[in-house]
Design a protein that fits this description.
The chain is an all-beta fold. Helix content is 0%, strand content 28%.
Amino acid sequence: INADLVGKSDPYVKVKVPGSIEYRTKIIDNALNPKWNETFEFVVKQYESDSIEFEIYDQDVGKDDFIGR
C-alpha cells in the first residue's frame, strides 16, 4: 500500500508480544513490497497471550502514517 502522495512508502514494522518489550524493524526506503530479514528475541514471563502483534507504518517527516495491523 502506498501511503505517500509523491513517491513510495518508507515502511517499518513494530513487533510486539503482550507483556514483553516492543521492537521496530529498519525502515525500507521507497518500497511497496518490503522484505525484512531481521530476528528479534522476546522474553515472556507468563503466557499472557498467544499472539504476536505486527503494526506497519510509513515513515514521514512529522507523524508517521499507520498502514495496517
